[in-house]
Amino acid sequence: MTASYARAERAALCDLFDQVGPDAPTLCAGWTTFDLAAHLVLRETRFDALPGVGLKLLSGYTAKVQRSLKAEHGYDGLVRMVRSGPAGVYRVVPGLDEAVNALEYFVHHEDVRRAQPDWEPRELSPGLEKVIWSRLRSLSRLMLRKAPVGVALHRIGGGGHAVALGGARNAARVEVTGRAGELLMFCFGRQDHARVDLAGEERAAKALMGARLGV
């Protein structure tokens, strides 16, 4: 049977939700674990509010729905809903949960882990590392589209690199090296919490660290 990394990361995140409680910090700016749990339920069950996740013009409605989910279900109820998933279209369309949610839940699991004191990177299975790297190669240009410099990603522990050019055509290039999971966190906009090494001009590296990356 094919491993489901989406389900495994979902379960691990819910275990962590239970452990840290509703008021723990996350790497999602301004969100507690309560807010993150509501977001995860919203994205699977309230497609009417989903556009506001990425569009500022519609974000007010999305925030309103997120607050209503918190009020209606409470923290424990939301965590149970996340744990029982996938829900909505992710449940009925074969393969969609794994295709979309494997990275989503990995990143949000790390958003909670890395916001806690004394966190350390997990030792990921070779299979999960391979999946992350494969998806990252496909998504890197999208995730780095706002990078003010050129970027080359170099994976430790598997070989190969993917290049995604951002900014001006002749911009300086920064080499970013790390394990697949760390590169994913970096490209998802968690630069300050990714264990990677940067090589390149100091000014270019600093600009990349401060850029708004992600989907």
UniProtKB/TrEMBL annotation:
Protein name, per record: TIGR03085 family protein
Q: Which domain of life is it from?
A: Bacteria
